[in-house]
Prior knowledge:
By secondary structure, the chain is mainly alpha-helical. The chain is built from six helices and no strands.
Amino acid sequence: MVGLAAGITFAPQDVPNRFWVLSAVCSVIPDADIIAFSFDIPYQHLFGHRGFFHAPFFGILLSIFIVLIFFGDREMFSKQWFFYLIFFFLLSASHGILDAFTNGGLGIALLSPFDKTRYFFPWRPIMVSPIGVIPFFSKWGLAVIKSELLWVWLSSFLMVITSAVIRVMASRH
Ligand SMILES: [Zn+2]
């Protein structure tokens, strides 16, 4: 939802289909780090859950990778090339930042790999999700869905509506 809303809000009209798929991937891929638990890598480890892969630095690496692999047909350093680079970076970084608004688990290693400190924002309205699929089908899971609908989906939706209104108003002038 975050990827889709950001794309609708900021992307130029002629983006290819792969843009939408990559946007969705970028906003959720940091959570692939839960695989660390199966390798006995502890939560607080550099490569543990909410560690390196949740840091904006990883977002930089990911966006460079995406632009080189999937947008290699764009002229390097062109306006469009920079748009994709910055867009995918911000989207990947937004995941860790949104997680820092959640009310449980360990904090996010936002400065990883330079500093292993885990961070949370002082205000944490988003209910943290249980880890794993089975625990999600519970009262807790339902509360998470409600909380995400309110804080993430509603904000994303408002962003899309606001941008649409701004576009319509701008086109009238
Ligand atoms: Zn996460």
